[in-house]
């Protein structure tokens, strides 16, 4: 690699943290920002309430709302210890709540690696499992971080067993804890055998100083606790659970680090593992099967469209992840879905309320385009050589509600707003002739998506909406030939989704099973489930 673009690509790492709410994603993000010297202080002496305001303002906002609706990316430079080569890290935020798993899925199309953050006391939790399945589905390599080791929790072997048994991923320790959960003294580097001893800082506000000791000095310092860490890591090695880059990239194994995000223990190790092991941005196949190489002319995929992130900016932003080529603000690119030119004059990075103009960006980077109303998640932008990336699959919805304007006089705004929110993928929109266009049906993976619609209709389009939940819980893809017969069945209704797909909704899975048995010739295809 020698061209400027190849150098920029080689030093980039784009990843997301996947975790169950409360595992410590925000705390870890802050710790990473501290290590990258993006902030000078992190942590809190008295929990989050005492936390200093930081770059993660946006997280605070999400916390205040109790839900996570904004997804954006934090970019920082990081120079690993002992080198003078700065890497560029893009940390793409994922929504925390399970109701937004479809958004998370979209976000995960924008990353090259994921960090699976696990609470040492809780082990694998439902949302972690779900998100892990998404990573597996998309072939995203996963680094595992077992967090909160400063608190009493399970044993390392138990936690690692759970990972291999429940998700079939072989954990390969990179850094093993010295001291049981609740007595976190340091980490043993499984590859070099060296001991990294940490010292706490007041309130975990600063980077934890490290001492590096060889095995003899470690034994002298920690005694039995050190011996245990050595025995356990050697046991893992005997079982063949050692890091192997190829099987990690193939999604078969996952390097493991133990950490305390709140004390900043193991955070440097995570950053360096990302730089050393996670893949740099790489080629991506278009729908015609041809690979778009990172050195090809500019191309990007839109993975998130959102609006109303704060009251000062009521506009709409489309976030794209650059796949190939150099992006220069102002360049006119082509929107693959419509063939229309798209001017990129207003290109931004967005962190909370802060917006900064982006003049250039490279593969792996995330750029927000302002007022990009024509763009929808999954869309492709390109320059010169045409490419279109595969669409992002829609999830199987499980919640359905009719939505209508509170007052008939607002119908025009209502249509405009609901169509916009449908395009952004806030909910899927369904219609059929019987119900008509005045009261479309919203389909969602989680009911909180309906709340987002109601809130945004009011704040952005000035329309109060009424929602009425429908008693359907299962959706199957069907075809025109089967639609009439299905509509004649009790507890079934057929709709057309905005993308033209016909969906049959069933009151419950027993109704579906009965119909599948009685009328086996009907087309009833399973949609991508949230856990696929
Ligand atoms: P999330 O974004 O994944 O939802 O988690 P977040 O970082 O908000 O962390 C959830 C809680 O866990 C927070 O406590 C946070 O301080 C704590 N936490 C995160 N990482 C660690 C860690 O490494 N060790 C320990 N001991 N705690 C950690 P909180 O909601 O403020 O409650 P509290 O701690 O004040 O009771």
Automatic annotation (TrEMBL):
Q: Which SUPFAM superfamilies match?
A: EF-G C-terminal domain-like, P-loop containing nucleoside triphosphate hydrolases, Translation proteins
InterPro entries, per this entry?
Answer: EF-G-like_DII, EFG_III/V, G_TR_CS, P-loop_NTPase, PrfC, RF3_C, RF3_dom_3_sf, RF3_GTP-bd
Q: Where in the cell is it found?
A: Cytoplasm
Start and end of every Tr-type G domain?
A: 10-282
Q: Which domain of life is it from?
A: Bacteria
Q: Which residues bind GTP?
A: 93-97
What keyword terms does UniProt attach to this protein? Cytoplasm, GTP-binding, Nucleotide-binding, Protein biosynthesis
Phosphoprotein: is it a keyword of this entry? no
UniProt entry tagged with the keyword Isomerase: no
The entry's function note states:
Increases the formation of ribosomal termination complexes and stimulates activities of RF-1 and RF-2. It binds guanine nucleotides and has strong preference for UGA stop codons. It may interact directly with the ribosome. The stimulation of RF-1 and RF-2 is significantly reduced by GTP and GDP, but not by GMP.
Q: Which family does it belong to?
A: Belongs to the TRAFAC class translation factor GTPase superfamily. Classic translation factor GTPase family. PrfC subfamily.
What is the name of the protein in this document? Peptide chain release factor 3
Lineage runs: Bacteria, Bacillati, Actinomycetota, Actinomycetes, Mycobacteriales
Gene responsible for this protein: prfC
């Amino acid at each position: 690699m020698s061209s400027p673009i190849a150098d920029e690509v080689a030093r980039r790492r784009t990843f997301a943290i996947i975790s169950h709410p409360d595992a410590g994603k925000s705390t870890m993000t802050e710790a990473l920002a501290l290590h990258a010297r993006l902030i000078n202080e992190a942590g809190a002496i008295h929990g989050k309430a005492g936390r200093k305001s930081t770059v993660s303002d946006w997280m605070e906002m999400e916390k205040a709302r109790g839900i996570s609706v904004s997804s954006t990316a934090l970019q920082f430079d990081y120079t690993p210890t002992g080198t003078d080569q700065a890497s560029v890290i893009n940390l793409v935020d994922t929504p925390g709540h399970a109701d937004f798993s479809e958004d998370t899925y979209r976000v995960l199309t924008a990353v090259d690696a994921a960090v699976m953050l696990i609470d040492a006391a809780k082990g694998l939790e439902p949302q972690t499992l779900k998100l892990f399945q998404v990573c597996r589905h998309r072939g995203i390599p996963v680094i595992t971080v077992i967090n909160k080791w400063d608190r009493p929790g399970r044993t390392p072997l138990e936690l690692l067993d759970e990972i291999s048994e429940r998700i079939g991923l072989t954990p390969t320790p990179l850094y093993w804890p010295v001291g049981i959960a609740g007595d976190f003294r340091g980490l043993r580097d499984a590859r070099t055998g060296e001991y990294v001893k940490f010292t706490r800082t007041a309130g975990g506000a600063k980077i934890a100083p490290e001492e590096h000791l060889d095995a003899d000095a470690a034994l002298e310092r920690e005694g039995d606790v050190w011996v245990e860490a050595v025995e356990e890591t050697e046991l893992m090695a005997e079982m063949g659970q050692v890091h192997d880059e190829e099987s990690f990239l193939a999604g078969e194994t996952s390097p493991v680090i133990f950490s305390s995000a709140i004390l900043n223990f193991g955070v440097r190790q995570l950053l360096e593992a990302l730089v050393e092991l996670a893949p740099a941005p790489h080629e991506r196949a278009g729908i015609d099967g041809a690979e778009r190489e990172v050195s090809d002319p500019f191309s990007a995929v839109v993975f998130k469209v959102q609006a109303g992130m704060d009251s000062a900016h009521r506009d709409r932003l489309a976030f794209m992840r650059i796949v190939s080529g150099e992006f220069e603000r102002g360049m006119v690119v082509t929107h693959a879905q419509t063939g229309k030119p798209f001017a990129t004059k207003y290109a931004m990075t967005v962190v909370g309320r802060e917006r900064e103009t982006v003049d250039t960006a490279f593969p792996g980077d995330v750029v927000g385009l302002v007022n990009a109303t024509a763009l929808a998640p999954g869309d492709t932008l390109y320059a010169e050589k045409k490419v279109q990336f595969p669409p992002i699959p829609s999830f199987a919805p499980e919640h359905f509600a009719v939505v209508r304007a509170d007052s008939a006089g607002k119908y025009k705004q209502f249509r405009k707003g609901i169509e916009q929110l449908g395009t952004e993928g806030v909910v899927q929109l369904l219609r059929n002739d019987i119900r008509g266009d005045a009261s479309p049906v919203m389909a969602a993976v989680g009911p909180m998506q309906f709340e987002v619609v109601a809130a945004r209709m009011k704040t952005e389009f000035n329309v109060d909406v009424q929602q009425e939940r429908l008693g359907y819980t299962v959706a199957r893809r069907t075809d025109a030939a089967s639609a009439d017969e299905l509509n004649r069945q009790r507890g079934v209704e057929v709709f057309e989704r905005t993308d033209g797909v016909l969906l049959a909704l069933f009151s419950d899975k027993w109704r579906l099973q009965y119909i599948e048995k009685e009328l086996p010739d009907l087309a009833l295809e399973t949609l991508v489930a949230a856990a696929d």
